Structure formats: C-alpha cells, structure tokens
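Field log, afternoon session.

UNIT: design team B
ACTIVITY: writing a sequence onto a fixed backbone
BACKBONE:
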C-alpha cells in the first residue's frame, strides 16, 4: 500500500482471482458499438460531446431542484413506464447520478408476494410514496396492471377494469394532497427494441437484463400497443397527464425527459449557508492500533501497477 499504509497487515484468506481484461474490453466495445450502431430508420443519434455537455448542465439543475425540494418539503413522484428496453433504467441512472439517495429514491418493486396479492392493488405502492423533502422515481409502477399483468393474464378482467376505474381517482387524490406527479412513457420502435435485445444477448455484462418475459414484448407487440392505448384513454387526465418520450435515440430521450421534468416544477436556487472546514485540533496522545492486528484487503491495485511496469 502507498503512503502511510505501506506497512502490510494481515490479509484476508482466499483472495479473489485477478480480474481479467474481458469486462473492460466488453465495456469499451459496447461503448464504441453504441456510437457507431445505426439507429432505427429516420432517427439521428445525438453527438456524444453535445449530449454530455447538456446532460451535465441538466444534472446541475437537478441538484438545485433537490435542494429546493428539501428546503420547501416538497413531494415529487416521477413514474417511468414504457416498452422493455426503451431506456427507462438508463434515464433514471442519469437523473439520480449526482443526487442524495436519501432525497431521491428509486423504487423498482419485484412481483407481489402472496400476501400482497390479497391486498388492495395500490396498497404496496403507498408505503413508497415520498414524505416532505423527498423525490421518488418509480422504475415501473402501479401501471404494471394495465400492461404486463393484463397482456400476460396475471390479473382477471375484473381486476383490470377496476384498475382503470380507480387509477385516475388514486392519482387525483395524490395531486390534491400536494404531490407533484409526473408520468413518462418511453416509446421505442420495434426495430430499435429488437436491436437492443440482440445487443444484450451478445453482452455478458448485460445479458441478465433479458428474461423470457422481456421476449414476450416481441411476440405480443400489438397486444402491448392496444393495452397502452387503452391505458392512456383512461389515465391521461388533466391532473396527471402522460408525457411521451421518443427513445429510439437514448441520449436524446434522456435529455428531453430531464429538461421537461425541470420545466414543469417551479424550483428556485436555494442559497445555502457557507461552510468552512474547522481547524484540526492538536493531538492528545492517541496511539493507533498496530496494523498487524487488523485484517486488510489484498492490494490488488498494487499488483496491477507492478505488472504494468
């Protein structure tokens, strides 16, 4: 170890094998492929330099929004819905990249438990709604019932009809209580979705993103389209309208979604009290425990540096 930690202590047993270059090579290749890959017909990809400059500017505004939310004790709910591989998750990552996870929380619920299946449908989502000073981003939400549950037969016709009736009521109650509710639907073409599925199949770092249920998106494309259209008819209400994000180009989708979200909230730049580091007090006789009495992780980074030289 370098500096003050150069003296070795005990090392943990069974250190992991040195990581190979496969992961980095795959990541670099994936990044290069994304830059060079053709988008769906008629779609122009946003240049990386332009994208990264604007993304960073918008992320700085998101930090301002976060501080305003904390100061004003505001409650914000952002719903991300859309086709599989439409770019919801990657957009959420960019939204939260520089935010405090105690303020901006991501909610991605698994399939309901046996107990939850007996509850009022909206009940398991209510416990995840924000308190004052919080932002909650739902990576899929109660709209599962109008999409995958309805299309794949995981709910009855009666449950589906009840959802379409109750959902606008539920959302109006949230808005009436002061929650700022924003709903985004990420729209991707069948051509681009299939391209992304194939890319995941060939990428060992992202293959976990594909499941048999995801592949149903291909064979049931029109069923999902009809389901989405009916969902919009019932739930695209003035109090909580849907905002469609064209996402064949992921970079443009992220920029458009974040810019729109910021434009719909009247946040202000909150002036924070200046902070100064206090002077470090003089030593008072503390003696550090001998290093050989502690278990250190192996210096894997050091072995890589040695091999590089």
């Amino acid at each position: 170890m370098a500096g003050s930690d150069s003296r070795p202590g005990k090392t943990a047993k069974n250190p992991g094998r040195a990581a190979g270059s496969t992961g980095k090579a795959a990541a670099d290749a994936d990044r290069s492929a994304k830059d060079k890959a053709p988008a769906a017909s008629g779609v122009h990809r946003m240049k990386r330099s332009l994208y990264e400059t604007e993304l960073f500017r918008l992320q700085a505004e998101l930090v301002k929004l976060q501080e305003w939310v904390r100061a004003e004790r505001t409650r914000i709910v952002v719903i991300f819905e859309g086709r599989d591989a439409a770019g919801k998750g990657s957009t959420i990552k960019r939204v939260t990249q520089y935010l405090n996870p105690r303020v901006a929380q991501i909610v991605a619920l698994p399939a309901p438990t046996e107990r939850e299946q007996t509850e009022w449908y909206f009940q398991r989502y209510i416990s995840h709604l924000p308190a004052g000073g919080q932002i909650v981003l739902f990576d899929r939400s109660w709209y599962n019932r109008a999409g995958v549950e309805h299309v794949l037969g995981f709910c009855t016709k009666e449950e589906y009809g009840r959802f379409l009736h109750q959902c606008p009521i539920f959302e109006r109650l949230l808005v009436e209580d002061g929650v700022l509710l924003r709903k985004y639907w990420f729209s991707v073409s069948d051509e681009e979705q299939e391209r992304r599925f194939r890319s995941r199949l060939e990428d060992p770092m992202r293959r976990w993103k594909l499941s048999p249920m995801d592949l149903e998106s291909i064979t049931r494309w029109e069923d999902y389209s009809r389901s989405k259209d009916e969902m919009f008819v019932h739930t695209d209400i003035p109090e909580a309208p849907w905002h469609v994000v064209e996402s064949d180009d992921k970079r443009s989708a992220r920029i458009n979604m974040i810019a729109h979200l910021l434009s719909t909230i009247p946040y202000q730049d909150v002036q924070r009290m200046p902070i100064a580091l206090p002077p470090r007090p003089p030593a008072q006789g503390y003696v550090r425990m001998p290093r050989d009495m502690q278990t250190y992780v192996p210096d894997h980074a050091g072995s890589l540096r040695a091999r590089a030289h």
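LOG NOTE: Confidence is low (pLDDT under 50) at residues 1-23.
NEXT ACTIVITY: expression trials, pending approval
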